[in-house]
Amino acid sequence: MSLIRKTAAELGSMIAAGEVSSVEVAEAHLDRMTEVEPKVKAFLHVDRETTIAQARAVDTRLRAGERLGPLAGVPIAHKDIFTTRDMPTTAASMILEGWRPPYDATVTKRLREAGLVILGKTNLDEFAMGSSTENSAFHTTCNPWDLTKVPGGSSGGSSAAVAAYEAPLSTGTDTGGSIRQPASVTGIVGMKPTYGGSSRYGLIAFASSLDTPGPFARTVLDAALLQEAFSGHDAMDSTSIDAPVPSVVEAARHADVAGMRIGVVKELGGDGYQPGVLARYNEAVQLLESLGAKVVEVSCPSFTTALYAYYLIAPSECSSNLARFDAMRYGLRVGDDGTRSAEEVMALTRAAGFGPEVKRRIMLGTYALSSGYYDAYYGQAQKVRTVISREFEAAYQQVDVLVSPTTPTTAFAIGERVDDPMAMYLADLCTIPSNLAGNAAISVPCGLAEEDGLPVGLQIMAPVLADDRCYRVGAAVEQALESRWGGPLLKEAPSL
Amino acid sequence: MTMVYDEALDAFEPVLGLETHVELGTRSKMFCGCKTTFGAPPNTQVCPTCLALPGALPTANTMAIESTIRIGLALNCSIAEWCRFARKNYFYPDMPKNYQISQYDEPLCFDGYVDVEVDGRTVRIEIERVHLEEDTGKSTHVGGATGRIHGADYSIVDYNRAGIPLVEIVTKPIPGTDRLAPEVARAYVTELREIMRSLGVSDVRMEEGSLRCDVNVSLMPRGASEWGTRTETKNVNSLRSVERAVRSEIERQAGVLADGGKIVQETRHFHEDTGTTTSGRSKEEAQDYRYFPEPDLVPIAPDPAWVAELKAALPELPSVRRKRLQAEWGLSDLDMQAMHNADAFDLVEATVAAGAPPADARKWWMGELARRANETGTPLADLPITPADIARVTELVASGALNDKLAREVLEGVLAGEGTPDEVVEKRGLQIVNDEGELSAIIDQVLADNADAADKVRSGKIAAAGALVGGVMRASKGKADAARARQLILEKLGVSG
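^ Those are the sequences you sent over. The predicted structure of the assembly is below.
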């Protein structure tokens, strides 16, 4: 089997055993990128020399007998929203085109410390606002299952890169579903860790109280290995949780749901959901039952209002977070011809540098925080958020995990929803509640929808700091389905 | 037209309000690890966080939180059991994030008071809140006449100051100060400054901007019950300016009201040179700051046991210390008040500690040196003379080596940088003439030159001896001991004093 088809765990073992060098593994993936990038367009920045140099450094460290983690020497695609000293960081926005950060994000730093080799920076919706990568200022990424479809978003470059075998692993950030939804529609695994479980330092902020870095991989174990490599307490992030985290890697190896209580969320699924999605989802629930889990229906009535609360909270925070892009210290500067005031240059720069969706959210958030509207919008949304957290807590009194479809539909066509923001926002209907509550949630592939042959994802949600449960249930589903399918779902994908 | 102060106060009663910003003297900034050294080369004390680079996050400085709680305790405030930072959103080039991390409706300390004494009267100033925030960068506007952004050719920004912890202390409205309003305002800021100094939380140097004051003033007609519209005067950067700004604003507002005009709620700027204020931006067009809880920082929840510990460990506060010193030194209320206003306590105390009698220490600092400080516009503490120098001079006077006049000359020499008091005495040859022979010879010469006066004294008009003593002092260039000279003159003329 060629190197690019191997899992990250396998590659890590082979490199550690000296069967293959990190440079060879990186080259295999770079070659794959040369071959398929023109079709997939998952990356915003690729620099072969920097990548090979990193791989060579890891090989040297390993040969010197340095003990690195299980992913040492394994290549990874990095979402272009994490700062990187040696590569530009743009958040897929014109306002940051060409910006080279003077510092590494904590996630970046930990990838390097674990010996992971960064292949390049992946495409996303501008500032992580979107569900399709169509809001990228640079280009749209295509779904490797069907190049006319979106790869999901905002972390669509990262999901496509892994699904297209350009990388065995990638990073993402999940604010309202930006890891789980792209994982679902590209047939891979994507995990949103507990909020505060992975550091936001160096992650360009969209909505501070929701943004969560997390892993993409083709297997549940690989995702767990990656999460373990970059998560954990960080003194640079005040909201980072300083508490021991249950081992997710151990959980991913413990694919056993016998005796676990699993709650089916009544409000997520049903009317408006694609029939093929519901069919695969229901089969997955039956599968869990057949594996010995106790399945019950749980009602969380406020989940239906989560989307609305989210679209007040996230834009409010973003309107403030994006104020720093003012042409003064970095990034784009428009109209500075010596005749204009600082205010005019700021306004011209922001007008030229932000795309329409970013502007829409800045305006929405500015309005929601305005004096006289704050209580009715932002304040009310925070109350809804509290109610949703309480409903989760109540549900977790009865069950160990909750499940739902990850998205209401499979991948939609490029261009289909660009003129209809509300339709675009609905892609995150099932994923948003976990963001509002700060819970852990994972998406694992659960088959192909009959009507379009595209991947469907199962979402498994767990309480704060119980990330291990997502992995344990996810691994059980993966194991059972792969034995049924005779291999991973991705082998059904057309070759590129 | 402005009104003369006394007339203004005949017609109106002022209500004051003061907002004071104190830069904390923490070694690192409020939300990052950058240094806070004053006067470092521009933009050398910066990092991703205080420059607001994409992705950078704040973490709160625990020492700054501790200092703020100690300030709150010293001002008799309640300390919040749980509170949050908030973002104050507005665009300005010297504010890197285009929002300031501050506190909004959940200040760390609230509902306190501080007593100040003015003119023998104790005035209680109620404190509404004490909260913690970060400073902005510092803009310098180049070109143009005003030094302000409008009309400037270009502006440069130094972000060294961006993110330095800033404590804002806000009073409740202060009615009832009447004619003493300017003095009360000054006494309050003086008291705050001393409290900060005794806590060791800030160097409170107004001229370096580590203590800044905004002064709110409104007037209401005498006998009215409803307060008038207030103005907020910014950038009042010395104690004297606090007093002048209040006075000037009272005079200006009284003039406007007396002419049937209306006070506009606005920000005004104080001008050190003219002692007057001019209009800044109107509050009518004030921005909506869109405050919301800072999502990048976890709430502050000070452990009550820790707060109790901080309270127990507070140092002696200035008002308590003043009472103690007054008792120890046996000085009058008026003397104490004058020293307080002149900010002379530390200096006098140090001088006493160096061995000077309290009355002498007070006399030199509040007399000769205060006059000198006023003339040159230097704070007393910044004069190039130490408490030890003063103590040495008082010692030389007490031992009879110097008289008052010579002592003044010694101080002048020390202030001129000629060295220690002993070195100045040596260099300028300022010892009292103690040689009886030399003095006797001078007296003989003076008696011979002033035979008329000498005769008058011989005939019993002892008062005429004054002119002869004066002659001796002149002839000795002031170095004679005047009392001894008088005694010798009378002896030589055969009359007893």
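The radius of gyration of chain A is 21 Å. Chain A has a mean pLDDT of 97.

Shout if you want it in another format.
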